[in-house]
Amino acid sequence: MVALRQARVADHQSAVVQQVVADQPVDEGAHPGDELGRLGGEHCFATEVAADAAPLPGASWEGLRTLFSVLDDRLFAIAGRALQLIDWDRSHQFCGRCGARTEPRLHERVRVCPACGLSAYPRVAPAVMALVRRGRELLLGRGPHFPAGMYSALAGFVEPGESLEQCVEREVAEEVGVEVAKLRYFASQPWPFPHSLMVAFTCEWAGGELRPQAGEIEDAGWFDVFQLPKLPSKISIARSLIDAFAGQIRGEFGTGA
Ligand SMILES: [Zn+2]
Q1: Ligand 1 center to 88 CA (angstroms)
Q2: Cα–Cα distance between 246 and 137 in angstroms, integer?
Q3: Fewer beta carbons within 10 angstroms: which end of the chain, N or C?
């Protein structure tokens, strides 16, 4: 059982992920919609406990964010899904259109309003990350809240009605004033704080000079791939994106220079 307490999850893997056999009764209040998937062949369910609940024996309560680099990827994914589903369930107890109390469905992950019929599904908010190349340089920027000296790829949330490609073009234009072309998908990463999906791209500079957006981008610059600044931690998708693209470009220009 992945137990959650106010956006917290216990981190002792063997203690928190217990076998829940399908033909045994699940905890009171749980139903098939709570199932998170399987881990090591065993069904996992999410449940919320009281804010002052004591941890299971041998376990402790830890913020999921701090466990990002600690838990293995599959357990983090299950815990992240649990956090998002609990948050969604808690945030959709009442209909956003008419205010009536919503009801869960037994065989589908949705909360439905009995008064007006509105269905509320778990939300996923897509965001894009863009790493722009110009020759052997990469465009990196830093937000006002970044650790001192650290630069990263640009990123922003997708707006309604926008494709991922359009979002990359708009975000880069808004944040630093340059045009991009030749977008290529790199990878994606779910980020359960609270419900994002980051989709990373590489692209090529197609025109324009750097004009960092006031308030959003504290500084931005073109960095030679052989002389990159301080970058985000190794476990982030931003770092994977930068390492992979910089490595490719270094290969094109030889290892010297
Ligand atoms: Zn309603």
Answers
A1: 16
A2: 9
A3: C
Distance from Cα 114 to the centre of ligand 1, integer Å: 7
Structure token digits, residue 164: 């991922």
Q: Hunting for tokens 């992240």 — which residue is that?
A: 80
Tens-binned pLDDT, residue by residue, of the chain (257 aa):
445 443 344 433 333 333 222 333 344 444 545 678 888 888 888 888 888 888 888 888 888 888 877 888 888 888 899 889 888 999 999 999 999 999 999 888 999 999 999 999 998 999 999 999 999 999 999 999 999 999 999 999 999 999 999 999 999 999 999 999 999 999 999 988 889 999 999 999 999 999 999 999 999 999 999 999 999 988 889 999 999 999 999 999 986 54
Ligand 1 centroid – CA 69 distance (Å): 41
Judge contact between 38 and 44, C-beta under 8 A: yes
